[in-house]
């Protein structure tokens, strides 16, 4: 990510005894292992890195990019709201596939949300996962006793979710955390299983029952983490969408992806 002082972090890590550093390079995540070496009274940092292309490292990198941008805006004495606004732009650089940034202050007020900007201004201090864990309280608790980023694991939409967060301070000392999460178990096999389950339900209950069951958010029966069911008719119109009900009724027959592929027409 542009703005991340990764060389400083490499030096800091090497001086602390050596270890791994994650940062952005050539529009991807890179992980390097570094150690401090002294030769003839001169200190050097020796390292080697690789590109893991894993969701976990991508999550860390997108958070670090958000933190770097926040610190840059703060250093320029601009309002920190500018940083939160950029994090909340659904088509911006802090949204990558199903990964997005969100930010809260240490009282649970949502100040940025890259997936559902409508949540900005609401309070999520009392948000509990399906096992009763107060997720955002847990993130704040861990960050208050850590100088590094923290991971919190919880259950959401019937699946395990892992969120990574780092804390930042505004110019007035107000504390926030910037975070991103992913579902490690929401993979190809789960997608196939979800479609098979929806197929059997639609055969049994018909179109009307299926549209209602797949599109409503009161139950997670047809959701698994960030996986959900979408139904198109053969003319490309969306008749059910478990991710965004506002899409229902839209015709996507000629819609193109970022590579110019008509993905609905070609399905």
Helices and strands in order:
Elements lengths: L5 H10 L3 E7 L2 E12 L2 E9 L4 H21 L4 H8 L7 E2 L2 E2 L1 E4 L4 E4 L21 H10 L5 E7 L2 E11 L5 E8 L5 H28 L7 E2 L2 E2 L1 E3 L5 E4 L26
Antiparallel strand pairs: 1-2, 2-3, 4-5, 6-7, 6-10, 8-9, 9-10, 11-12, 13-14
Helix pairs in contact: 2-3
Overall description:
The structure is a single chain. The chain has 267 residues and is an alpha+beta fold. α2 (55-75) runs antiparallel to α3 (80-87). It is 29% helix and 29% strand. The strands form five sheets. It has a five-stranded antiparallel sheet, sandwiched between helices. β4 and β5 form a beta hairpin. The radius of gyration is 21 Å and the shape is globular. It has five helices and 14 strands. The mean pLDDT is 86. The chain has helices at residues 6-15, 55-75, 80-87, 135-144, 188-215; strands spanning 19-25, 28-39, 42-50, 95-96, 99-100, 102-105, 110-113, 150-156, 159-169, 175-182, 223-224, 227-228, 230-232, 238-241.
User: How much strand?
Assistant: 25-35%
Briefly note the structural class of the backbone.
alpha+beta
Q: What characterizes the major β-sheet?
A: 5 strands, antiparallel
Overall pLDDT confidence: 86
Sequence stretches where pLDDT stays below 50 over 5 or more residues? none
- Which strand order do you get reading across the main beta sheet? 7-6-10-9-8
Helix-strand topology string? HEEEHHEEEEHEEEHEEEE
Terminal CA distance reads 34 Å
Please count the helical segments: 5
Overall helicity: 25-40%
Q: Would you report the number of β strands?
A: 14
Tell me, briefly, the overall form.
Answer: globular
What is Rg? 21 Å
């Amino acid at each position: 990510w542009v703005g991340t002082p990764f060389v400083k972090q490499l030096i800091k890590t090497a001086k602390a005894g050596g270890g791994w550093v994650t940062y952005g390079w050539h529009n991807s995540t890179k992980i390097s292992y570094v150690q401090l070496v002294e030769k003839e009274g001169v200190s050097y940092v020796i390292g080697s890195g690789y590109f893991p292309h894993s969701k976990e490292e991508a999550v860390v990198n997108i958070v670090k990019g958000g933190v770097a941008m926040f610190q840059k805006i703060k250093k320029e004495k601009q309002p920190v709201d500018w940083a939160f606004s950029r994090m909340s732009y659904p088509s911006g650089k802090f949204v990558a596939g199903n990964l997005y940034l969100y930010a809260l202050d240490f009282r649970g007020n949502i100040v940025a949300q890259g997936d559902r900007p409508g949540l900005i201004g609401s309070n999520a201090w009392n948000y509990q996962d399906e096992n009763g864990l107060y997720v955002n309280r847990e993130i704040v608790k861990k960050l208050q006793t850590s100088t590094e980023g923290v991971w919190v694991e919880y259950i959401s939409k019937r699946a395990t979710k892992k969120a990574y967060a780092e804390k930042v301070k505004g110019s007035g000392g107000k504390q926030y955390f910037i975070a991103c999460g992913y579902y490690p178990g929401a993979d190809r096999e789960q997608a196939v299983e979800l479609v098979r389950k929806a197929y059997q339900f639609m055969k049994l209950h018909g179109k009307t029952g299926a549209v209602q069951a797949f599109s409503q958010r009161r139950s997670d029966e047809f959701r698994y983490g960030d996986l959900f069911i979408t139904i198109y008719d053969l003319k490309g119109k969306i008749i059910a969408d478990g991710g965004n009900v506002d899409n229902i009724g839209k015709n996507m027959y000629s819609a193109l992806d970022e590579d110019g592929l008509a993905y609905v027409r070609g399905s």
